[in-house]
Every structure is written in C-alpha cells, then in structure tokens.
Amino acid sequence: MINPNWEPEFKERLEKHYDELKWLYAEIYNNNEEAFNYFCTMLHDYYVQRKPLLKEWDEARLAVPDWYRGNDMMGELMYTQCFNEDLKGLKEKLDYLKECRINYLHLMPLLESPEGRSDGGYAVSDFRKVQPEIGTMEDLAALADECHAKGMSLCLDFVMNHTSEDHEWARRARAGEKEYQDRYFFFDNWNIPNEFEKTVPQVFPQTAPGNFSWCDEAGKVVMTTFYPYQWDLNYANPTVFNDMTANMLYLCNNGVDIIRLDAVPYIWKTLGTTCRNLPQVHTLVRIMHMAADIVCPGTLLLGEVVMEPSKVVPYFGTVDKPECHMLYNVTTMASTWHTVATKDVRLLRHQLETVFALPKSYTFLNYLRCHDDIGWGLDYDFLGQFGIEEVAHKKYLNDYLKGALWESQSRGELYNDDPRLGDARMCGTTASLCGVEAADYEQNKWKLKMAIDLDITLHAFLFTQSGIPVLYSGDEIGQLNDYSYHDDPLKWDDSRYLHRGKLNWDHVAMREDLSTRQGQLFQAIKKLQILRASYDVFDSNADTWIVEPWNDHILGIGRYYNDQKLIALFNFADDEQTAWIDEPEDFIELMTGEKREAKAVQLPPHGFVWLFHSYKENKKTMTAPDLEALTKPKKKAPAKKAAKKTTAKKTVKAKAAKKETKTEVKTEVKETKAAAKTVAAKKETKPAVKTAAKKETKKSSTVKNTKSKSTKAKGK
Predict the structure, then answer these.
(1) What angle do CA 616, 622, 624 make, to 5 degrees?
(2) Which residues are known to be catalytic?
C-alpha cells in the first residue's frame, strides 16, 4: 500500500522497491495483505520520526554509497562497561579512539537483559531500553551524535533470533496468552520437539544441551536453541517480523549506523531440517535490507554467519538484490590461529585463495579476536590430504593454545569442552595467545620480543587483507587475559570472560613509552594503520593473489591497485626463514623506509615485510615514505560561522563520506553533490598504465611458478 499523502521522498524510495518487497512478503507470509500494509505504514512512521541530522547523513552516504569500503576504515569492538564503565564514560574517551584512528565503533550488546541470565547481553528483555547501569537510550543517541561529529560510525548488535524469557512477549506467553505463545515455538508435549532434535545440531552441547526447554508456568515445551532463558522467535508469524523490524529501525533512528544481525542463519525453523541457512532466512534479510534503504539509507547490515565459506557468501545476496553489506571473515580468523599453532601456512593459503576469488564488492570484517571463542570449523577435507584427522587435530590446537605443550608460550582456556566429540573451543586475548603473558610472567626478554613480534605480524597480516580490519578493545596495548571471572558467581562457568576484562587505563597511559610492551605494540599498530590508510594498494578494489615463497612457514600475499604493487611476507616460524621469491621491480620496505630487493627475502622469527613498488616512479625517483609526515596530526580547520551552519553540515557529511572511501579531503566542499561528483570522477579514473603494470605484475612471479602466478594476476 502506498499512501498518496506520504512525503515525495519516502514514496520515491518505497516505489523503487515496492514490487519486489510485496512479492517477497506475499511469498513468505501467504499473501497476508493486511500484515504487508501494516509493514509499509510502519516504515513510513519511522521515516517521519528520523531526525533531520540523521537524514543529512543519509544524503551524504547515498552520494557515496561505498563510503565504508576505503582503506582508511579501522574498526574497534568493545563492551561499553569494560571500556569506561558506561555510555557517558565512553563518550568522554572518544578522543583516545580517534588517536587509535578508529572510525568504526562496534559496541557489544547493551540493551536491557536480566542479570545472571544475559548471555553477555544476548538475552534481550527490552529492545528499546539500555541496560540501566550502562545508561539510557538518550545517552546512546548522544554518543552516536558525538561519534558522527568525530567522523565515526556506530555499530550495535541486534539479537533477532530470540528474546529473553523476561521479555514482555515471553511473560505474556508464560501467562497463557495464545497470541504471544504464537510469537515463539510452544508445543503441548515432546513429540514434535523430539522430531526436531533428530536433525537440528546443538549449539552448546555441554552447557545447554538440546534445543528445547520445559516451561513450568505455561505447562508446555518451548524452543531454546541457545540457552534455556533465550526463547526462539517464530518468524513464520508476520507480527514477529514486523515488530522486530520496527525494533531495528528504532535503533537506527537513535543514531546506529551499522546493525549486526546476530545469529541470522538460525531465524527460520522447518521440521526435518537443520534449521540453519534456510531459503526463507535470505528472503527476510533481503526485506530488512530494503526496509533500511527506504527509511534510513546508508545504514549497513552486518551478518554474523559463523560457518564455512560456502554457507557464508550467500548472505551477501547478489548485485541486484543485496542482503548483508558486510560479513565476518570467520574462517580466515580461525585459520590464522591454526597457523600460529602449526607454523604451517598451507591451510591459511588455501583459505585466502577462496576469499581472493570472490567479487571485490564483497566486504568482509577481518579480525584476530573478538568477544567470542575461537571455533575450529576448518577445512578438514583439505587437511586430510596431509594425514590430519579432525578430532586429534582439534586437541592439538587446543593443547597448543592453552599452553599445555612444552613448545608453546600461548595461554588460553577451553570453552564448551565436549569430551564425547573430542571438541572444544578456545578463549584468550591476542597478546596472551601470542605468548606475551607467559613471557611477562617469566620476565624473559627474549620470549617477550618473540611474542610481541608475533602479535605485530598478526596485525600486519590483518591490515593486509581487503575489507575492514577490526581490533578488539585492549589489543592495541597488548592486554592480557583476565582471570578474575573465576571468582565471579555470575561468570565463573563461561570462560569467554577470560578475554572480556576491563581496559586497564594505567596501561593505556604507557602507550608512548617504547620501553614497555604496551608502547611497542601501540606504536607498531599505529604505524601499520597509518601506512594502510596512506597507500592506494590497500584499497578494497585492489587485485589480490597468493605469492608462492616455496616455504610452508611463510605466507605471501600480492596486491595491485592504481599503479602500486605490494608484496607482503609473513613468517610464522620460531626461527629465521627465507621466502624464495624473485620479483623484478625495485621495492621499498614500508615499515623501515629502506630500499630492498624482493629476491630470496630473509625473514626473522615471527617477522614480516611490506614491500612496496610504484609504477609511477622509476628506480631513481622512487623514495621511501615520509613516516614522520604521515604520523603528524593534521591541523583542525577553523570553525564555520553560524550564518553558514547549514552548508557546513552538508560539507562535513560530504567530507566524511568521501574520506571514508579512502581519500584525504584537501579542499573545501560546499555542497554534498559537489563532493559526490568529485568521488565519482575519481572512481571512474583508470590508471593510464594499468595494462603495462599488469604485464609487469605477471613478470614478477617466481621463476618456478611463472605460469601459475601469471594466471592469478590476470584472473584478478
């Protein structure tokens, strides 16, 4: 239904998607026209409620739709209460995040959830209230405004598969109201639940076995895929979908720019299936994407799909019918820690070849650690050709990363250990898993250097990948595991709290002191960030390929974009190794600024190099990067006069949008349209010598693998 009295802008957006929207909605909800009309009216209501300042951001991002894909994007993931107590405390520390060059801030769940039954905030009892000890919805909106003023986008989790058993819908369902029981999966007996259990895997077989729980008050069985206090929502009921979409838009209207769709593969249930990744899930995500385009264009959907690549990629949708704007690069993360434990890069190389073959328009969030555990969902068919057996190998990985093997300096803990299947997941901070904790405890300087070098090399690898690199709060200063959770009666049985400790601000204060591990890590990561943002070769549109070093301890990655070429080499071994490559160009090592040949490159233990070549500069004129100039803070522009306030707002939005693609704004932009034209013109500009450069790229392959690598350079 399109009301002729609706605003022209809203009608234009709705009409653009109307036919597809109505078709998909009718298909999944059996031509329920009343529910569809309500859905359209609800979209209009949230469009009207959206603040003018947020609508200006919408306009700026519509002008530069790929604003989030630039090589200057840098994310950080955090729990608000662990960072600086609450939302107001976080707001006070935004300048520190700016110093860390963060422009994508992801806050872990902060909506109201019951103490002791919150699953770290993933059991939401009210989607419209912030947890009281963290703040209020007004505090969240104020934080969003301040983030926008500082050029940061704000991401928030949207827990859509389930609610807390304390949610109003659940309370009314327990009281026997049929309307609200229909919003969940209630059964009079165990017959149908037992049929589900035959095909539906268990998420937490040790801590929360099974997929159903008995509800005493209702006298019925309810579906609880995760924990018994998290009741699965029934998205086959259009009322659930309409109301949950409204909850999502409510968060957007409070300034949230990126919505993380938590556990999205689980949201549709069908008897006789795994209840994972069903076709209806993709239909619902596509409708949610269109809803955001209509109400708050520029809002991004981030899908949490913790599964193998074949299951992950479909959540991008297609070019014409996109679903999620971004997805987590889960498999690469797990493969990275596998490589840390084995010192063998073959699995990681295989995984990256899969990623590099995907369209460049697919944007991944890349990370080393996050709030969750490390699950070993690896490609065991690939590993099997080397005689590796899944259960035994998982045990080896866990033994290594928890420090149970003599050769390991890692310190982690198991999560959800399942002796029946020989399966467990791993917890720990990046620094502790790299060996910093053990070396610090032993006061062993040699071990500490090895651990810090590994930590820096892993971050360099993170920043070499296309997409958005995301740090986990505290990793920038090498924060260690927090074992205090063992003494907390509400946390002791969840080892994920090992890496959810409070940020140590005393350690943050050491970030300028290079005699400390905090200072060494902070300054090295900062330099990596600056270099990544300063060179076009790190752009997400770059060609990428695997460089063959003829050494299974070394990972080699090649990148080419806009007449720039990068050869990145990473040594995962505990001793010096050689990358047997033979690249013809003249290179500069970006971290040191020294000229270096890319021939038989020696790498120290846990070391890496970023070898850079510009085709625009010849051997005589190519110079090292001016690191001092790159690290100098930029002068702030003078404040605008009040008379130009409206124009200034548009200018800021246009600048932010353009800058976030990757380009430094060097001149004043007076209108959003002018900024858009500038960006468009830049995007259309092609390197004049691209063909010649690609030929050079082909020639740069190693002698023994010329044919294979040339094909990859062409294929990209």
Answers:
(1) 125
(2) 262, 304
